[in-house]
Specification:
Helices cover 50% and strands 21% of the residues. With 300 residues, it is of the alpha/beta class. It has two domains: 3-96 and 279-299, ATPase, nucleotide binding domain (Nucleotidyltransferase, domain 5, 2-Layer Sandwich), CATH 3.30.420; 111-274, ATPase, nucleotide binding domain (Nucleotidyltransferase, domain 5, 2-Layer Sandwich), CATH 3.30.420. It has a five-stranded mixed sheet. Helix 2 (72-85) links the parallel strand 4 and strand 5. Helix 9 crosses helix 11. The radius of gyration is 21 Å and the shape is globular.
């Protein structure tokens, strides 16, 4: 019975699923094995931990989707770590955005992730394209982090102008346990974890839903940014969908989700679907494809 392994390696955690004969038999979670985030030594330690939990014996093919797999060098470092631990396995390393289409069982289309960060990736007629995914210093437009940062910037701009804090500024300060919006500046630099701020994007969305104009403006800008990511990939590939959305902002915030659906439809992309499976199962599907290709090569 053929054994395959799928890995979804994010900035904060690693998920693994082991399958035998195409049936998942073990799942496990560990800390991040993202080389770009934690370094080679820690990534190797976390891989050891998760492989011990799901079992490394007999694995014939493994696919790892990693947020840090942005360059050939980054992919090679992770591939080497896996090869040391799974010497008999065929190995494929991809950017984690590629797992979304695979997890949805879709071969051609556009994947959009909007959570702590943001990225779009697509495949059509054998070609692939990606937009965004540059990280919080250079991009992540339309993400939870970007929305919270925009709210903080708006509040601090009001402080600079000597204006009283608006409803959104007061709500953001209160959410952070602060007494005034002036304290947001130091608080932002003292709390550098992107997930901390991404969680506070819910304040922006809740106020937007309640009719707050500042919150609404930030949500509209975020939706436009996400639609631009999808549009960039769709235009490059001449692909009109489907668009598979994943991530907490795009999936779990109804206002963002519905506005994104409306905006994409206005651009002629009316097939938007929510990913209803864990992305790690996409890695498992891609691992199985390695075996299929190998079988075809041998038969040829």
């Amino acid at each position: 019975m053929t054994t395959t392994l799928g890995l979804d390696i994010g900035g904060s955690k690693t998920m693994a699923v082991r399958a035998e004969g195409g049936v998942a038999v073990a799942e496990a979670r560990a800390g991040s094995a993202n080389v770009a985030s934690v370094g080679v030594h820690e990534a190797g330690r976390q891989l050891d931990a998760i492989l011990e939990r799901v079992g490394a014996y007999g694995v014939k093919a493994v696919c790892a989707g990693a947020a840090g797999a942005d360059t050939p060098e980054g992919c090679a470092r992770l591939r080497d770590l896996l090869a040391e631990r799974l010497p008999d396995a065929m190995i494929r390393v991809v950017h984690d955005s590629e797992l979304v289409l695979a997890a949805a069982g879709v071969d051609d289309g556009v994947a959009l992730i909007s959570g702590t960060g943001s990225v779009a990736w697509g495949r059509h007629d054998g070609r692939t394209a990606r937009a965004g995914g540059w990280g919080y210093l250079l991009g992540d437009q339309g993400s939870g982090y970007a929305m919270a940062r925009a709210a903080v910037c708006r509040a601090l701009a009001a402080v600079d102008r000597g204006e009283p804090a608006d409803r959104l500024g007061r709500a953001m300060a209160a959410e952070c346990g602060l007494r005034s919006t002036e304290q947001l500046l130091d608080h932002f630099y003292n709390h550098t974890d992107r997930r901390y701020w991404a969680r506070r994007a819910s304040v922006v969305v809740e106020l937007a839903e309640a009719g707050d104009s500042a919150g609404r403006a930030i949500v509209e800008e975020a939706v436009a940014d996400l639609a631009d990511l999808v549009g960039t990939v769709a235009d490059r590939l001449s692909c009109r969908g489907p668009v598979i959305v994943a991530g907490g902002m795009a999936v779990n915030q109804p206002l963002v989700h519905n506005e994104l659906r409306r905006t994409l439809a206005a651009r002629g992309i009316d097939d938007m679907r929510v990913l209803d499976a864990d992305p790690v199962h996409g890695a498992l599907r891609l691992a199985a494809q390695l075996l299929d290709r190998d079988a075809v090569a041998l038969s040829g």
